[in-house]
Amino acid sequence: MESETILAKQFYSNNDAVINESSLNSSLFGTKNKSSKAIVERPSSGFGLMVLIGTFILMLAGAFFVYQFQPDFEQFQIDRVNSSWGLPFLIITGILFFFQAGVFLYNSYLYLRYKAIPSVSDEELPTITVIVPAYNEGKLVWDTLMSLAASDFPAHKLEILAVDDGSKDDTWYWMQEAKKKLGDRLSIYQQEKNQGKRHALYRGFNLGTGEIFVTVDSDSIVKKDTLRNLVSPFVTNEKCGAVAGNVHVLNNKTAILPKMLNVSFVMSFEFQRSAESMLGSVLCTPGALAAYRSTAVFACLPEWINQTFMGQPSDIGEDRAMTNMILKQGQHVLFQRNAVVLTNVPEEYTGLYKMFIRWSRSNVRENLAMAKYVFTDFRKESKFGPRLLFANQFFKIVMTYPFLLFMLFFIAIHPLLFLSSTFLGILILSSFSALFYAKRYSVSESFWAYTYSIFYTFSLFWIAPYAIATANKKGWLTRGLVVAK
């Protein structure tokens, strides 16, 4: 019990709590969790400081050696241009560089114009059905359901459904405990066997009665005003078919990887999705928190549940697929920065790379699906936004293997030049992410942007090429992992 209270105090003091501290023991964290010790264990602050110091030593050393090796860099460039493949590659990379720079500047302009839509009044709020699919989440599903029940949303307009997708642990027990506490406010269902998250959501969609469907992962916590902020755009914009929530990392105090991912998530959501929202074309509504107009869901539900890739049923990327199909209907997909959800992320390398593989495979699949409609007359108003976003994704995928081959060639020919230029590049390019996070949240935590870039560059660079080569493979990948709950 003591460890749960520590976690609760830490979470709610840092993240503008859903319920006040005095009610923790009697409500959200009122039942003992035998594995809670694993959650509250933190890495040594001294170790974290050593990692950050090491990060800056590497980057500054890179800058120093780039200066020292300047003649070698010049000779390498001359040799590359004079080779049969060097000049064409240089021209292509130059074009892509200016394209990416242009996209970044345009996104920055859109971000500066972005404003989250304020919450509408209780009378204007639509009826909603919140669907929580769960598989082997244990007591985390209780925490999720309690945070939803504590939302500042009219009770008579809020329906909560939880679907146990054939869990093998005590997930169903915790759903039943939540049902005892919440009564008619919560409906729980159990799949006879594990069929996958898509099928659990499908059952929820068919059972739900709300005008808006909200999906929340069963290891996530919503803030008190999250639901009302999330669904308000449907009231103010009749063309809105879906809304993406703002995902932060819940366990960002427990390990080094979540610390890094927390900075990365803020950049991905609060910068990138803000820009996409201004174009009405957010490419992915995250599974952790998303909302869909029910009519838009039912318009594509048969296609979505029966989706296949290379002849096999799709069992991943259900969130990206639903977003894609709603965009194809000509509807807008927006982002609400003020609708915050905190979700658990992997704390070990194995879980992280498997999660990224799943996301990357889904990205490849849905970009191929998007290619079939994005250049058609799928939307009455301007289609420039979704086409630009598609082109940006497309070029990244197409150039994955050429850049991988160039990187391997660079390493083989001039390993010191590669290392020094890479560290200098990280110092320069990651500074934007660090400054963005520092301005929005915390200066001290922003330095993890540099560490994450080094970590990703040297240990996860293989994800994209591997995902492209294995895009047809099925499997959730992370479901078999043992995760502390």
UniProtKB/TrEMBL annotation:
List the Pfam families hit by this protein, alphabetically. Glyco_tranf_2_3
Q: Which residues cross the membrane?
A: 47-67, 87-106, 388-411, 417-437, 449-469
Question: Please, one GO biological process term?
Answer: extracellular matrix assembly
Please give the InterPro entries that the UniProt record associates with this protein.
Nucleotide-diphossugar_trans
The Gene Ontology CC terms held by the record are: plasma membrane
Q: Which UniProt keywords apply?
A: Cell membrane, Glycosyltransferase, Membrane, Transferase, Transmembrane, Transmembrane helix
Q: Name one GO molecular function term.
A: hyaluronan synthase activity
Which compartment or compartments is the protein found in? Answer: Cell membrane
Tell me where it mainly resides.
membrane
Q: Which residues form the signal peptide?
A: none
Decide whether keyword Transmembrane is in the record.
Answer: yes
Superkingdom, natural source? Bacteria
Q: What is this protein called?
A: Glycosyl transferase family 2
Give the source species.
Flavobacterium reichenbachii
